């Protein structure tokens, strides 16, 4: 039996973005409308669909953002974040 390769964090973030895109298109709504429903900026949502925060930096969205989007899309969080998960999780550091 073969197992799925473990994705990098970047690959996983892109996969999550692809799942958001598919769910949004299935609902037949625009990025702008979904962002408005989820109470986030359209630009933020566009980055989520791409899976990148800025060139070379993978996305690391807040849990509240993911839950708001899942509610707006009638999507289960566990389906959005389904594995396989990356082995290496980036650290989240806050500036002083």
TrEMBL record:
Tell me the InterPro entries matching this sequence: Cro/C1-type_HTH, Lambda_DNA-bd_dom_sf
What SUPFAM superfamilies would the database entry show?
Answer: lambda repressor-like DNA-binding domains (SSF47413)
One example GO MF annotation: DNA binding
Residue span, HTH cro/C1-type domain: 20-80
Name-wise, this protein is XRE family transcriptional regulator
Record organism: Aeromicrobium camelliae
The major lineage groups are:
Bacteria, Bacillati, Actinomycetota, Actinomycetes, Propionibacteriales
């Amino acid at each position: 039996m073969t197992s799925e390769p473990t994705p990098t964090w970047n690959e996983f973030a892109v996969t999550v973005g692809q799942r958001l895109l598919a769910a949004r298109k299935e609902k037949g709504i625009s990025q702008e409308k979904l962002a408005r429903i989820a109470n986030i900026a359209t630009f933020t949502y566009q980055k989520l669909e791409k899976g990148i925060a800025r060139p070379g930096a993978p996305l690391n969205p807040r849990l509240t953002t993911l839950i708001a989007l899942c509610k707006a899309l009638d999507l289960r969080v566990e389906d959005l974040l389904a594995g396989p998960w990356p082995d290496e999780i980036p650290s989240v550091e806050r500036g002083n």
